[in-house]
Amino acid sequence: MPTTSLSSGIQACRNWYASAAGQATLRRVHHLVSGMSADIFGYYALETGVLAGNTSFLQESRIASQFVQGGVSGEPVSVIASPEHLPFALNNLDLVIASHALDCTRQPHQVLREIERVLVPEGHCILIGFNPLSFKGASQLRHVFNREAQACHFYSTFRVREWLNVLGFEVLETASAGFCPIVRGDYLFRQTRWFDRLGSKFHLMTGNVYIIHAQKKVSNMTPLLPSRKVKAVLRPGMAVNPSAGRISRKESNDGQ
Fold first, then answer.
1. DSSP-based three-state secondary structure for 122
2. pLDDT tens by residue, 199-234
């Protein structure tokens, strides 16, 4: 159901992106997503999730018809709905970009099932989420014994890849962005910018944000029908008598 106000998880996520570290990470995410979507063609593309309406990952997309889905009325979006219930027909979209849609929901599997449902065969999805194996993820340790107190739930790329595999997706590319420590204030961020340079250079997967590019695969294999056991017409020692049109016992002596 569409909401009328931001949840605590969505608000916390947007607040982080408003910081200096978040803004730097967002620029890097834009660059990575643009590279992943540059060669994706089709008719319809959808952007959904936390950042939909606040930033556009589809600016450089070659898909002409683009929809932005948000959950709060009054924001610059074209559709009001939740990622758990996408208002699109089966097999209709060529590209879905979901920003932190898995982080800010209690139903991450439902979000992925909806993306799979609306994508055309061979359609693409790009997932953006917080990485638990990062400085950002370490901040969640204070809720390790009380997950209900967490505003967001972070899932590793390994787990998300497993979920995608179960739904029949093929993961084409995985990237990471934002390697600096996350603390209040910008001083530590400015002093540790070399983390970003190091992580980007060596393509480390310990960034605060992950980006997963996957493609929906549909099997085109023809199922084999169960083989039917056919009883043998001829038994050992039997021969066909063409003149009589019936099966007769073979004589032991051909000369008789």
1. strand
2. 566 566 778 899 999 999 986 655 565 655 545 444
Residues in Cβ contact with 22 at an 8 Å cutoff, skipping those fewer than 6 apart: 16, 178
- pLDDT tens profile 29-54: 999 999 999 999 999 999 999 999 88
Query: Into which CATH architecture does domain 8-216 fall?
Result: 3-Layer(aba) Sandwich (3.40)
User: Is residue 93 within 8 Å of 46, Cβ to Cβ?
Assistant: yes
Structure tokens at 111: 């979000």
**Which regions of the chain are under pLDDT 70?**
1-6, 135, 137, 139-151, 180-204, 219-256
Query: 178 — alpha (psi -120 to 50), left (phi > 0) or beta?
Result: left
Q: How far apart are CA 215 and CA 137, in angstroms?
A: 27
Q: How many CB atoms lie within 10 A of CB 107?
A: 14
